TrEMBL record:
PANTHER family: DEHYDROGENASE-RELATED, PHYTOENE DEHYDROGENASE
Protein name as it appears in the record: NAD(P)/FAD-dependent oxidoreductase
Gene3D superfamilies attached to this UniProt entry: FAD/NAD(P)-binding domain
InterPro entries xrefs: FAD/NAD-bd_sf
High-level lineage: Bacteria, Thermotogati, Deinococcota, Deinococci, Deinococcales
Matches recorded under SUPFAM superfamilies: FAD/NAD(P)-binding domain
Organism of origin: Deinococcus cavernae
Amino acid sequence: MQRLDAVVVGSGPNGLAAAITLARAGLRVQVLEAHGRPGGGVQSAALTLPGFTHDLGSAIHPLAAASPAFRQWPLHAFGLDWVQPEVPVAHTLWPGSSGAVLLERSLEATAEGLGRDGPAWRAMFGPLLADWEGLLHDILRPLLRLPGHPLTLARFGLRGLPSAEFVGRTVFQTPQGRALWAGLAAHTTLPLGTPGTAAMTLVLGLLAHAVGYPFPRGGAQALADAMTAYLRFLGGEVLTGVTVRGPTDLPEARVVLVDSSPAVLLKLLGDRAPAAYRRALERFRYGPGIQKFDYALSGPPPWLDGRVNRSATVHVGGSFKDIVRSERAFTSARPYVLAAQHTLFDPTRAPAGQHTFWAYAHVPSGSAADIRPQVEAQLERFAPGFRERVLACHVTTAPQLAAFSPVMVSGDVNGGASTLWQLLARPTPALTPYRTPVRGYYLCSSSTPPGGGVHGMAGYHAALTALRDEFGEQDHG
Ligand SMILES: Cc1cc2nc3c(=O)[nH]c(=O)nc-3n(C[C@H](O)[C@H](O)[C@H](O)COP(=O)(O)OP(=O)(O)OC[C@H]3O[C@@H](n4cnc5c(N)ncnc54)[C@H](O)[C@@H]3O)c2cc1C
C-alpha cells in the first residue's frame, strides 16, 4: 500500500474540512472516526418514532452557510440543499404581551420591528454588514494575526470587547431590542456579564442579515454526508468504527491532524509533548454543558404569537432580565431554551402533518439533573398546549454528550469556553495554535480558533498550516 500523506483523527466538521483541504492539495488522506458514521456533532437519526429525523447535534447553520471554506467547495453537487426559512430568528417575549420580536433577514425590516431601538440596531449592524465577508475572514481564524480588514475589525472589536449585558443595557432602550440582543448573546454559553460576549452576539446578529439561518434539507447529516462524498471524490478515505487511543493506533503518515480534545491530543503525543505545552493544555477551560430534548409532535408548536412559525429558530427566553438571570448560573427555574422547528419548512423530516422539535437549555458543567419539567414549563408559557402535542421525547444529558464526542468535555458543545482569553489563546497563546511542539502533529478541533460551531474553519486553517509546514505549499484553500 502507498504511504499516507495525512491522517485525520475524527470526522466532525473540522476533521472533514481538514481532510478535504489536504485532499484538494493532492495529498493521500485517511480519516479515522470512532462512530459508525462520519459527522461528529453534525448527524441525524430517528431518535423518537419511526419516520421522524432528529439532529443529534447542530440544527441551524448560519456559520456553515457563511464559512469561507464551505462556500468555495461544491457541496451542493454532493447532495447539500440549504432550506432557508423566511425569518432567521423569532424571540418569544412574555406571555400575554406583544408576543414575539423577529430578527428578519432584512436589516431595515428588523429595525422597523424594533421601533425606538430601530436606529440602534441599524447603527450596530449596518456598517459590519457592508463588509461582512471581510470581517469573517479576519475572525474565523486565529485572532493574533494582522487583519486584512482593519477598519471593520476595529469597529467590531470596539463593540465586541465588552460584555453582552453591558452592550444590551447601554445600546438598547426597549424591552424588545434588549431581549432580542440577549437571546443571541445566550448562544455564547457564558454568563452575559462576561467580557467579550458581545463579540459572538454581534456575529450571530450579523449572520442573520448576511446569510440567514438555514439548515440542510433532510437533516444536518446531509452536510456531513456531502462533505464525506466530496472527500471521497477527491480520493480521500474515511474509516468508521475506529477509535484512536494512542500513537500505535495511527497508520504511518507524514502529518496527523487531531479533531479531538486537547486531552486526546496529549495522549497521542505521549512523552514527546514538552512539559510546558502539556501544562498549558491542562489549563484549557470548558464552559457549562447543555441538556437536549428531541420531540416528536402531533402538530406544530402552538405559539401564542403565530409569527413565530415564520422562523425555524426560536429563542424561548422572555425578557433581557430573564435571560441574564437564566444564564448567570444555568440553574434557573425559567431556563433560556434554544429551539429549532425544522419541519415547518422541511416536511421530509416527519410523517405528514407531524413535526420534530429540537431544543436545549444550558446546565452546569457535567450536570445530569433532569430539567425537562422546567424546559416544558417554559415552552408552555409561550406555547400553551405544547405538552399535549408531544408524542415522544428523547433526552440527551451533558455527560451523554461528552461520551458522544471527546471534543464536548462535560457537555460543552463549543469545545472549550469562549472567554476573551480563550478566544485569543485557543488552546494556547500562539500565532498558529494548530501547530503542536511535536513535528507533524496538529490540533484541528473546535478547541482551536475560531472555536465552536459548524464552519470547518479550524480544520481548514490547521490543514493549511500542515501544508505550509510539511509540504512546502503556500495556499490551497
Ligand atoms: C446538541 C448540540 C447542538 C449544537 N447546535 C449547533 C448549531 O445549531 N449550529 C452550529 O453551528 N453548531 C452547533 N453545535 C456545535 C457544533 O456541533 C460543534 O461546535 C462542532 O460539531 C464541532 O466540530 P468538531 O469537528 O470540532 O468536533 P465534533 O463535531 O465533536 O467531532 C469530533 C469527531 O471526532 C471523533 N473523534 C474524536 N476523538 C477520536 C479518536 N481518538 N478516535 C476516533 N475518532 C475520534 C468523534 O467521535 C467525533 O465524531 C451544536 C452541538 C451540539 C452537541
